[in-house]
Every structure is written in C-alpha cells, then in structure tokens.
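Write out the 3D structure for:
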Amino acid sequence: GRRRQEAPLRRTRMAGGAPPSASLASSSSGGFLPTTPVVAAAALGTLATTVAAVHLARGTPTAPRVVSPFARILRRRPASSAAQSRTRRESTPRPEKDEEDTAMITRRAVGSAVPKPHACVYLDYAATCPIYPDVADAMLPYLYRHWGNPSSAHAYGGPSKRAVAQARERVRALINARDASEIVFCSCGSEADNWAIVGALQGSAQQHAAASSSSGDQQQPSRAPKKPRRHVVVSTIEHPAILACVDTLEDEGRSIATRVGCDGLGLVDPQAVAAAVVPGATALVSVMLANNEVGSVADVAGIASAVKQRDAGVLVHTDAAQAVGKIDVDVQALGVDLLTLVGHKFGAPKGVAALYVRKEIQSRFPSLLWGGGQERGRRAGTEAVPNLVALGEAAQVWLDQGADIERHSTAMRDRLLARLEKKLLLVAEGGNKTAADVALRVNGPLGAADAATRRAALPNVLSIGIKGLRADAVLASLRDHVAASAGAACHTGATSISGVLLALRVPEPYALGTLRLSVGRHTTPDDVDEAADRLADAILADLAASAEQQSGGS
C-alpha cells in the first residue's frame, strides 16, 4: 500500500531502572546516555515538540497549551542536586485533585473541523465516531502521569481511583441513572449485550435453584416456579451482538427465542413485543433503542411498560449504542432494567463501554467475571483508566453540548439529503422534482410522509436506496474520498443484503443500492457538500455503466 508522507515519530527507549518520568537522549551510535537534569531537559524539549505536533493534528488551538504537560514536568524538577529534589518532593503535599489535568482540556465547538489523516470525508459516524479532541486531551495525563492501579492504596493509585469514580458519575448523569453503582464498566457493546442476555437467563436459573433449595429445607410445599425462565424476546433488527448470542444459546439448548418483526420503517410495535412474552417463562426482552442502519428510534418506554404490565418479572434491556451521544437517553423515562452504551460511538476510543444495571435487579443479576473484585465484584479485571476517563469525558461533552450536537447533526444530515436529491433528481428551487432516471428512496422513519413519524429517526443517520445502483462498487471507487457504508456486501461474487433491510422489506433493487451516510459533531458543511458531489458523480457514472452493459447484453 501507499506510505503516508508523514514525518516519523522519534521514540526514546527508556533504560532499565530509569523512572517513568525520566527521558534518555540517544547517542550518535544509537545507544542511550544516562539521564541528567540537562539531558532530561533537552530530551523532554524534543518530546514536547513531537507531542505538540500530535496535539496540533488533533486540532488543539495553540502550541503552548499542548506542551504544558511536559513543561510542568520540567518545572517540578529543580536544576539542583538530587538530594534537593528529593527534599522538595517529600515536603510538597500532593493535591487530592490535579487541577492542571483539567485545565489542559479545551472544549471544542460543535461543527468545528478537526484535521483528518486522509483527504477523505468521513461520513461513517455510525460505524465509529472519531475520538473527540477534548476527550483525547483528557486521556493524556492517565497515559504518562497517573498510571497507577486504582485498587492501590498508595499515592499512585489515588488519582486513578478518583478518575474512575468521576467517569462513573458522569456516565450516570449521562443516562440519568439514580446511582453510580448502577453503571458497570466493560470492554465493548458486544460484551454488554451478551452479558445482559446470559445474565438474565442465569439469574433466573439461580433464583429457581435457590427457591427450590429453600423450600426443600423447610419441608414445605415448594413456592419456586416450576421451571426457570428460559424464554427471550428480541426484534429482528437487533445488532448481531444480540441476534448471534440468542442464536447460539438456542443452538446449545439453553434458551428459546421469539423474534418480533418491525414495520417498513424499522419501527417495532410495543404491543407486538408484549404479546410475544410468555408469563412465567420469559426472562428477558431486548429491543434496541436506535437502529444502526436506518436510524429508527424505537418506543422503548412503550415496550417496557407493555411488557411489565403483562409480566412484571420480565427484565427489559435496550441496546442504546447508537442512541447515546446522538439523542437524550434517560433510563428513568425508558423504564428499562438494563442498557448498553458504547464509548466509540460518541467520541471515546474503542475498548470501553458500560452496562446499566438497575439497582432493584442487582441481587438477581449475576457477575460476568470473578477475580479481584473490581466493579463491585461484577466484572473482575484491572480498570483501563485512560479509556474510562475518555468515556467520562465523552459523557461530559454530551452533557455540555448535547442539544447543539443534535441540532448540528440534523442540519448536516438534511443538507446532505437535499444536496444529493438536487444532484440526482434535479430538484428545482421550488422543491418540485422533475421526471428523473434516478429512483431514490429514503429508508427508515426519515422517509415517512408525515413529520411526526420522521421525528422517530436519529438526527445523524441517512439511509438511501437507489434502484439499480451497485452501492458496494460505488463506495469502493470512492474509498480515498468518501468514507461510508453500504447496505449490501459482496463476498466472493455473491451479494448479501443486510438483515435489517430484509426485515424492512426494502425491494431488492433498492437494498442493493443502499448507502448509509452518518454525520456527527465534527462534520462540516464543506464535508457534506464535497461528499454529496462526489457521491452523486459516482452514482450517475455507475448507473450509466450498468445501463450501457444491459443495453449491450440485449
């Protein structure tokens, strides 16, 4: 592949026994010199310059601000003897909260451009969101400075422990959970989704076993349910993390599943979900809050209410990976017992997520991993503090800017659709469409005729189907110019249509020509216009080539 024309980063290999804050200067022979205050200052100066370039690439406003972490290290190290240095460290009390770490975070404006590593417009926020620059800033101190284990009682563990607690509180506020203990950190959405399903089934089995044992010990008629709850209800448009888990559990004989369909817009009927519940047998209902392909937003509050009315013992879970950070999510209003949120979908890095577990069900919801007792014993494993800090900062971004992000995303999505229609359908200024050779449909609620239904669409997702288009081929031709996703994929000559489009009963010619375009906090009008123009040109070229091929074949 092509090598990007970028200056290589200069790395300094640390010598064995050198403290983490020390730096080593490379000798002319490629070896390393022992650290002295002068050498350290010179090496840190070079490193600060490199880090400044990295920060500027992320869009940090001014260079002095980005070198401040390393400048602070130099200021703390006196240009005197090592003995004096030790005396100062021992006599200076450590603050409970390092305000300098917070001071280096600059909140970026909604709609501001961030430098891109490629000359390619990014319209694939639904696949993964770029790490917000202010989120990256928040992570930095926990990569090179506060690297202690949160479980450690000494000075190194304190900052990490406080950072994890702050992140948990921010995520709690993000979804309006009542207590921070209801937020359980994990690695990804798939883990959280799987845990919700398997945990609900295991919890029911454990409850049944405990009740049966208790009744037997008391030599009284058993009040335990005849069988543990093994039934699960899901929709047909769930993420594979839900559907594949349910399929596997069924194949292994560990559960029975009912899959509830949706309408042609991707909306799931709450009454249909409730009707699928088998009282006394259903352990869990899981319906995603927002669909990742067509942007439909489900009436999860209505689903939870209808399910609980039918059987109060059923747990309700929603996969909110695509909703959090795009629309307001309130677990109290939704009435759910379990909720999945994923960091890389709203500005945090990959590798961090959370499962909301309502306090009232925690006693009957089993742990996932056993070991050191992290996450209140629910999920053992030393915390990835930088990632958790990032998740907390991404949550704070939404708390600070959520309304603006939603308005901006809606404006960029609508601008994208309008420009594509104008280019492809020759839409006149008055809004009247001419008779065009291009047949275009908008998938999901955004394509509904009435405004009320259109409001059940995510503000950042646009799914369009163009009859006769080879969407995968168009995106392949634009891979260096526009980043987006197709609704169908070609594998070794065979084309497969996504399960979501099949569930919506999108006609095959449109499904094969479906493009999913998704915008976000840092999408700009220039991005939208450039992408729309390039897409329109490529679409028209592909349709013309297909028409010519068909006419030649006939």
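Residues 385-425 form the longest helix (41 residues).
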